[in-house]
Amino acid sequence: MHRDLAVNIAADIATIQSIEAVPTILETVAAITGLRFVCVARVTADSWTTCAVLDRLAFGLNVGDGLDVTTTLCEEVRDTGSAVVIDNVSTDARYHDHHTPRIYGFQSYISVPLFRPNGEYFGTLCGLDPVAANLSVPAVTNSLALFAQLISKQLETERILADAQHALLGELESAELREQFIAVLGHDLRTPLSSIVSGAEVLRMLELPPNALRVVDRIGRSALRISGLVDDVVDFTRGRMGGGIALALKPEPALQAAFEQVVAELRGAYPQREIVADILIVGAVLCDAGRLAQLMSNLVKNALVHGDPSRPVWVQAHRRDGKLELIVSNEGSAMTPETMAQLFKPFWRGNPGVGGQGLGLGLFIVSEIAQSHGGDIDVLSADNLTSFIFTLK
């Protein structure tokens, strides 16, 4: 394989591997179809390379492995731009004497093309099994077509996000970069993410097995988590380059309900964890309720990730004598003074091995929201108890 092509394929493999939803998509395809080998393949005129794989057949292909493209049906998918679906090779008029089923020993097979958003062919989402399967029904073909579309959109999302983050870190103080960066994140990233979330909602309406529905739920949660990362980067950009996070201040009589909603959502997202909430906010508070809900959410997520998983996270929010106080506490090893000095810096994580999928912006954004409100954020950590305290007068 030509060196430049090999480098490009290696980059494509890394991109597919970085898409959090791909493993759950492969699991869902296996659950919907009954196929025991499912993969995402990069297909060029001269090569076929595995980018992600679910193998319950001991087929023997791992990520990065290749096949002679002329022995595969993915070559036909590449040339025609259309899916190939085989329920049963032995009764299929077109493929019962084809060399590919004989080489690889399958009876059922499906391969759906993957395209980049610019229309360039990328490869296939494909699966096979030595046992015949009913794959040509609309519920299966439509679902795989949707999964292929989601992967295709996410390929572009990953490229844009990587380019934008690289540009941000290299030229953070450029006003022109700020506007371009926010525009890219606000439009180009949120649009495909919205497609993924919508796609998960469509799949929930199908009559899927319970295990497949659980995987679809994970896809939806993954997309929402990525959306949260995008929001964090947008807030970071505005906070560092635009003079702070913009607020829509107004007397908010329903801040308690907003905080309770945050707790309910996080209980749903972390069902294995206990969150003990004591929230009582009487009267209207001059604030941006959405931003304070974001502040609380970031603090509680931080406590869930870094606290003792066997112990609860405590959330207290009260308004007394005209002052709003929010305290989020967790048990666990006390932080060192050196760690506490770094907490609110962007892209910093105290323990990269814990919660390492984030960008390290959550507490920085907490600090920015507190500052924009004219409030204070403090940390106390001693005797295996850490508390973040936000006060607003």
Automatic annotation (TrEMBL):
Its EC number is 2.7.13.3. Keywords: Kinase, Phosphoprotein, Transferase. It comes from the Bacteria. It comes from Duganella aceris. GO terms for molecular function: kinase activity. This is histidine kinase. It holds the Pfam family HisKA. Residues 184-393 form the Histidine kinase domain. It catalyses: ATP + protein L-histidine = ADP + protein N-phospho-L-histidine. SUPFAM superfamilies: ATPase domain of HSP90 chaperone/DNA topoisomerase II/histidine kinase, GAF domain-like, Homodimeric domain of signal transducing histidine kinase. It is an enzyme of class 2 (transferase). The keyword Cell membrane does not apply. Gene3D superfamilies: 1.10.287.130, 3.30.450.40, Histidine kinase-like ATPase, C-terminal domain.
